[in-house]
Amino acid sequence: MKNSKIVLMAYWGFMLSVFSMSATAAVMVDANWLKKNINNPHVVVIDMSDSLQYRRFHIPGAINLEYDTINRRTQQGVSLKVSNEHLYTILGKRGITAKHHIVIYDDLGGFSAGRLFWQLETIGHKNVSVVNGGLVAWVLAQNKVSNKKVTRQAVIYRPDNVAAGRKNEIDTKSVGKLAAKSTQVGTFLLDVRTRNEYVGHPQAKKTGHIPGAKWWPWIESLDMKNGFVLHDSKKLLESLSKIGVRKKTDAIVLYCRSGHRASQSYLTLRSLGFSNVRLYDGSILEYSKTQNMVFRKGQKP
């Protein structure tokens, strides 16, 4: 009887872990959550720090996936995401299936982790989360680290439902149309670069921002004094409200110089519950190389 009870408890424990992974995962998880779930066979932890940092130390069990691996460069020097098919290959080579709960982190407050998060939402991967504060938060919580390289047996990644993926990307032509209709109610174009980049140089051509874009710097979403975690939702929502973004159903388009910083802002907005967020992947690099695209200098949108 006692043995039967133990077996039954083990069975329900296993089923509970499966069920918990079947529901859509939280966008952000903290270091404590990861510590509790790190040995769950349904969880795969991905470290998006560079390979040098990974070799120094990383979260135990994490596999390394560098930023450049999931991006390609055009002949014009514009950095763009790899194709969906290429991403499937990248994931499969690392032993990841569509059933896994992918948990991503980096050492820069989601700067690179946000990129993979965005791409995984594009292909409709159901369970994907980012560790709030990443490696810094993990270490500050006095958790153990490792310098042991982790590999997984390769599999074939078969997406469950690509059609269910988020429509979270926008091209240059559409951005141009959006810029021309910058006063449209409920649609916001956000520039997440530095103020100097946004304002532009008075003597230089093709500097400044896309007409109609409001300034919302990515770096200000992070609490640098507390381990690179995101600021609390109240503060972040207040910063958005100041530039007119108040409804979580508002259509938002993000850009930076290359799509890197804007990926972190995408992650931030998704963590706040915004559902209609798109990333201009080519960002200013592609915009500036496209004919007849206009820039605006100064602090006004």
From TrEMBL:
The keyword Membrane does not apply. Pfam families: Rhodanese (PF00581). Keywords: Repeat, Transferase. Gene3D superfamilies: Rhodanese-like domain. CDD domains: TST_Repeat_1. GO terms for molecular function: thiosulfate-cyanide sulfurtransferase activity. Coiled coil: none annotated. It is an enzyme of class 2 (transferase). Its EC number is 2.8.1.1. The lineage of its organism: unclassified sequences, metagenomes, ecological metagenomes. This is Thiosulfate sulfurtransferase, rhodanese. Residues 39-147, 183-296 form the Rhodanese domain. InterPro entries: Rhodanese-like_dom, Rhodanese-like_dom_sf, Thiosulfate_sulfurtransferase, Thiosulphate_STrfase_CS. It comes from hydrothermal vent metagenome.
